[in-house]
């Protein structure tokens, strides 16, 4: 059973396009996250979403918008893609509270040409 | 704002050598500390975590880490590495919102 899944695994698209990455978790967790890993492997939090409360990292451009249709899903929409958006995007989830580990998905490698 | 520093960017060891990866954090409040591992082409997996209690934490695959509050450190250790330990290792700190701040990662290569 895959705990945290993401689709697609690879996404190649052109500048200016709009794309979405889907994330689903079957762990029954309340909180989900999106992280970006750049080409130097540096990982940075983008969003945290907990029971309809969205916490945004202020450095994330507003072209990025998370959407959560229900507790088990947190999708990432990206408008007007730029070359600098090329990265691996990881979804994660955790139980409620502050003392819980996060479970990561397999990642989506986005390449913008 | 919290930050995490990993001093070793690349480490190359021979099998059976001992490993210690440094991690220092900057945060004024109560911290939860983690080490994650990313094997080539794979997602992040939790190696070990510290929330409270015994500052010496044992994780999976023979890894351990020691939380030294006075030094703001959480170094990862393994007495004898194997070729299969070749991976990227990330130290992380979580804040009150449970959002992880990662260090820059350490790439470990173990020569057979």
- Biggest chain contact: A-B, 25 and 26 residues
Number of strands of chain B: 12
Straight-line distance between termini of chain B: 41 Å
In DSSP terms (H or I, runs of 4 or more residues), the helix count of chain A works out at: 0
Largest sheet of chain A: 7 strands, mixed
Alpha-carbon distance between the two ends of chain A = 34 Å
Residue windows where pLDDT falls under 50 for at least 5 positions of chain B:
none
Task: Please render the helix and strand layout as text.
The complex is a heterodimer of chains A (113) and B (112).
Chain A: E1 4-7, E2 10-13, E3 19-25, E4 31-37, E5 43-50, E6 53-56, E7 64-70, E8 73-78, E9 87-94, E10 103-104, E11 108-112
Parallel strand pairs in A: 2-11
Antiparallel strand pairs in A: 1-3, 3-8, 4-5, 4-9, 5-6, 7-8, 9-10, 9-11
Chain B: E1 3-5, E2 10-14, E3 19-21, E4 24-26, E5 32-38, E6 44-50, E7 56-58, E8 64-68, E9 73-78, E10 87-94, E11 100-102, E12 106-111
Parallel strand pairs in B: 2-12
Antiparallel strand pairs in B: 1-4, 3-9, 5-6, 5-10, 7-8, 8-9, 10-11, 10-12
Commentary on this structure:
- The complex is a heterodimer of chains A (113) and B (112).
- With 113 residues, chain A is mainly beta.
- In chain A, 0% of the residues lie in helices and 55% in strands.
- In chain A, strands 2, 4, 5, 6, 9, 10 and 11 form a 7-stranded mixed β-sheet that branches. A 4-stranded antiparallel β-sheet of chain A has the order 1-3-8-7, with no helix packed on it.
- Chain A starts with a strand and ends with a strand.
- Chain B is mainly β and 112 residues long.
- The radius of gyration of chain B is 13 Å and the shape is globular.
- The model of chain B has no long low-confidence stretch (mean pLDDT 92).
